[in-house]
Amino acid sequence: MTSTAAPLISTPVTASLLRGALEVEHTEDGVLPHRLPAWARAQCTDGQLLMAESQPSGVRLVLRSRTRTLELDARPTKRVYPGLAHRPEDGIYELFIDGAPYAQGTVTGGNTLTIDMAAGTAELQPGPTGTLRFTELPDGDKDIEIWLPHTETTELMALRTDAPVEPAPYSGRRVWLHHGSSISHGSNATTPSTTWPALAASLAGVELVNLGLGGSALLDPFTARALRDTPADLISVKIGINLVNTDLMRLRAFTPAVHGFLDTIREGHPTTPLLVVSPILCPMHEDTPGPTAMDVNSLAADQVRFQAMGDPAEVAGGKLTLHVIRDELARIVAQRSADDPHLHYLDGRELYDEKDAEEFPLPDALHPDGPTHRLIAERFTELAFAAEGPFTARS
After folding, report:
1. What is the rounded CA–CA span in Å between residue 108 and residue 128?
2. Which of 67, 163, 281, 336 has its CA 20 to 30 A from that of 272?
3. In whole angstroms, what separates CA 234 from the centre of its chain?
4. Measured between alpha carbons, how far is 285 from 185 in angstroms, rounded to an integer?
5. Is 263 helix (H, G, I), strand (E, B) or coil?
């Protein structure tokens, strides 16, 4: 593509140009989209949570302009895992024009976060800013949308175009607010627009706010308050797998924690359709509790795989498995829905079950791959948005 001769106009990246973020932090060099507000981040300094919420899954730069050239300076934070011969690929930025996919790009440089999964350590090495560039865009006024990489923390420095830009007008579509684990965050999805929540939102014609937080769907009170305070027409919460992964609580704590989480959401959304989704099938944790650990032997084959470290005999003492969690979530929703007709339950195995596990096995024993994200999205759309589903538009 050849460069345009028109001088480029610099436009500050502000919250008005971003969708899907709950807060935009002003840094020394630019802005950093966050999916949890500062007050919530201050209540938990866990490195996994802070990394996950700063990775802009579902966050997109949205503007309207006649520009034919667009440049975006960004400083990503890329992850490196010692022991693996291959380095994870650069995060993908996806450009949409008037709602249709148009081009993709990456940003080189950036910070490097070295994560030693065996030792449980992480070290950040600062790096330079890079530039994303798209040229020869279609003539005329158009809505431009750039989906930011879903698994790279992305600091935005500068936006340059050859024509003025303004925030794109809101579509008037319903806003779907979703919370879940790394599966909802988009682990192993190919691109940011093909995580299962992004695909489902596209299929259903709704605006997504994705609070899928890798490793951090732990019934934290601050997450419930963030959901409570975020405007939404539809809400779903996918609960379970991270509680097993971390071996965080026993059944005695789980039940009141779920009630408290739902109570808090209902403080801000008393009649909003609220869908509780239990875990998809994960064979290693169906009857075996956590914690989950990386299988260090898989590194020798240049792979990452996980394994369950608990003992099924411990379930009698209150340890959580996916079977236990599904049964308890179904009971809780049945109990509460007697007084809350807008509360609904979806068994995650309706999205991915035993038969699917044979055809589309989880590559690392924990996360779905790209085709499985699409399968889950299609099933969720059919069950939640179509026919008489809990998210069906009603006059």
Report:
1. 9
2. 281
3. 16
4. 20
5. helix
